[in-house]
Amino acid sequence: MKADFELYEGNAPYIFVSYCHKDKDSVLPVIESMAENGYRIWYDKGIHPGSEWPEIVAEHLEQCAVFLIFISDHYMQSQNCIREIHFAVARNKKMISVMMEPVRLTPGVEMQLCVSQALHYDQYSDKKMFYKDLYRAEALGGCKTEIPSEAPAKQAESRNPETDRKKKQEAIRAPGKAPEKKKKKKGRLILALAAAAVVVAAGAAAGWHAWNTVEIAGETYARNVSGIHIEEKTVTMDLMAQLENLDAVSSLEFTNCTFEEGTLERLKNIETLSRLELTACSGITDCGFLKNLYKLFILEMNGCNLEDEAMDIGSSLPNLHYLNLSGNPGLTDVAWLEYMPELRSLELDDNSIEDMSPAASLENLTVLSLENNRITEISEPLKALRLEYLNLSGNQIRELSGLDNLTVLIEFYLADNHYRQSEGEQESESAPEQIPVCIEESSNTLEKADLSGNGFTREDLNRMLSDCGKLTYLDIGESSKVESLDFLRNCTMLETLYADSCGLTAWNGPQKMEKLKDLDLSGNELESLEDFPVLSAENRVKLDLRNNRLTSLEGLDTGIAYDKLILYDNSLSAEDTDRTLEGMQGNVLGITYEEGLRPESLQDFDSCYIAQVPDNRKVAWEDALGYKCRFEIFPHQ
Fold first, then answer.
1. Do residues 430 and 398 lie in contact, with contact meaning Cβ atoms separated by under 8 Å?
2. Confidence label for 175 from pLDDT (cuts 50, 70 and 90)
3. Any residues with CB less than 8 A from the CB of 454 and at least 6 apart, and which?
4. Apex 509 CA angle, 506 and 512, nearest 5
């Protein structure tokens, strides 16, 4: 389906429509109706004439007045769509979200859209009411061209060239009549009045512009702008005074700025502020200014060198729902969380936190991220029973009993905690007996899990994962003596599976994995691909089998085009490799040279990374494969 209207190209305020092209049949009727009602609209038609197209999209997004999003499952799966949201947020665009169907937002997207107006298209039985509510959105008002009503027939006739011509002929033929001479005096008077009107209008426009705009950090903003982004400036009292002149600013973002003493205290004068983001800023030695920001909904202070002493807030922030204080190694204590009882999302990555028990009392959390800290135990039960996203990777956790009451996790990350072994050792006498029960308890909801770098045994993994039928992403790399993947037989929805360096000797996993796109089995002890799964021809699969003990590729699915097929450091014969790979198609092939291997058998791959080719064979291989041939090892990704 194609929308039957011209995309707006001009200087007036317009709407940028962000949608997934797979949803065009449901989205285009909506925006076509908007265009018929006079709204100026630009959207990506999906016709990409060349590499300059992303620049064209970005340029139109940069210049739009309103960012209108049509969200669906397809939208959430599109990286290009998500990038458009990030870009719009970075440019402080006014946003309206239309939920086309029930869909689970990722924590990051939910955080970025939480202050936008949202309509649930799927919940309107009467679509007329949907359009009525949509057109009520204040942000859209400036993007509409008033459609004139039909002119009287007499007026329309006067604009008809044929009618005008006939009238002139009749006037010429009429006896005793001659065309009237122009009255020059009257014409001059009209011109003079028109010129005066132009001068008056110009003066009024200049006055309006001066009254309705504000100069801030060298940039001109409308006085009613909703968001400001300031980069690489020294924030002075004068600059803060300029910000206070804004009528309705709700979002302030500072990047690489230095705050002079006392300037942050002035934020209390911006009563409409609900979102504050400080990234890589300096001069923040006291966060007491936060106690006066009662309406604050989102707070981010990333990489600002915050110390524990700076976090003496001293007052509750009852409306704060999203907090991100990542990248502040001076933070070791989180006792100040008591002032933020309504938090929904808490991100404290890359700090030096040792005790996270104060977070246990936060009942409303759905997102908790504590990656790369110094946490050693979580024993106090978390009260956030609806926690969906939990990231504890990069700590030294040996006790996880505080997570036992979590039953609806969707994403759980525990990578590189060396839970079953001390770092650098095969096994540890102090290894905990208990496994994370929360995985087993969340088997009906869990979609993504990273358990790599913990030395979990096959028995551990079987208990945790055997019933997790909704998993789409799983990393169990560096587990201990797993031997086979039979515990994953119910995990047929997997799209990504990393099982490298697990001591695998056989597959024995699901026999059909139609959604699989990325499979890493490198660094194991596989001798054959017997019972290897059937993959979907619709996906270009990444398969890494390097550093195993394979003597044959029999069992490899040859009916698909691989995105990457990596076979280094096995014991494959040239004859078997030739027979298997000949006619196979793909993007990247990584293989170790064997005497007798023919370059012609690899010619249907776009790039061939061939290791250990003798110098006296390189010319022949280059002549056979041309630009496709590379004498290097494709990196482990």
1. yes
2. very low
3. 414, 415, 416, 417, 418, 419, 420, 421, 478, 479
4. 130
The pair phi, psi for residue 95, each rounded to 5°, is -125, 140
Task: Report the C-alpha gap between 385 and 628 in whole angstroms.
Answer: 54
Backbone angles phi, psi at 34, to 5 degrees: -65, -40
> 212: which strand partners?
none
CATH of domain 15-143: 3.40.50.10140
Tell me the average pLDDT of the chain: 85
How far is CA 326 from each of CA 282, 353, 376, 449, rounded to the nearest angstrom?
A: 15, 11, 19, 22
Question: What is the pLDDT, as a whole number, of residue 11?
Answer: 86
Answer for the pair 67, 16: CB distance below 8 angstroms, yes or no.
Answer: yes
| Chain-centre distance for alpha carbon 369 | 17
Nearest of 64, 59, 57, 60 to residue 92 by alpha carbon: 64
Cβ neighbour number for residue 161 with a 10 Å cutoff:
7
Task: Specify the DSSP class assigned to residue 359.
Answer: G
- For residues 551 and 478, what is the distance between their CA atoms, to the nearest angstrom? 23
The mean-pLDDT minimum among 167-171, 283-287, 395-399 falls in 167-171
Q: Which two tokens stand for residue 553?
A: 């590729």
pLDDT score of 2 = 56
| Mean pLDDT within 82-110 | 86
Question: What is the pLDDT averaged over residues 104-122?
Answer: 80
Q: Which one-letter DSSP state was computed for residue 363?
A: T
Distance of CA 621 to the CA centre of its chain: 42
> Which of 608, 615, 616 has its CA nearest to residue 592?
608
Residue with tokens 């890359």: 350
417: number of Cβ within 10 Å? 23
Q: Report the CATH number of the 221-360 domain.
A: 3.80.10.10
Residues whose CB falls within 8 Å of the CB of residue 61, separated by 6 or more in sequence, listed in order: 16, 67, 84, 87, 88, 91, 93
Q: Do domains 15-143 and 221-360 have the same CATH topology?
A: no
Helices (H), 342-436: none
Hey, where are the domains in the chain? Answer: 15-143, 221-360
Q: How do strand 213-216 and strand 219-222 relate by DSSP bridges?
A: antiparallel
One DSSP character per residue, 7-20 reads PP-SSS--EEEE--
Indicate the pLDDT class of residue 29, thresholds 50, 70 and 90.
very high
d(CA 373, CA 391): 11
**CA 78, chain centre distance (Å):** 9
| Amino acid (one-letter) located at 288 | G
Q: What percent of the chain has pLDDT over 70?
A: 85
Structure tokens at 570: 């096995």
Q: Name residue, tokens 């040239």.
A: 574
Contacts of 427 (CB under 8 A, 6+ apart): 420, 421, 455, 480
Q: Phi and psi of 322, rounded to 5°?
A: -130, 125
Confidence of residue 190 (pLDDT cuts 50, 70, 90): very low
User: Which of 127-131, 187-191, 486-490, 558-562 is the least confident region?
Assistant: 187-191
